[in-house]
Amino acid sequence: MEQQTNNLALASMILGIASIVLSCCCFIGVIPAGLAIIFACLSRVEEQFTGRAKTGLITGIIGLVLGPVMGMILVIVMILAGNAPTF
Question: What whole-number distance in Å separates Cα of residue 21 and Cα of residue 16?
Answer without folding.
Answer: 9
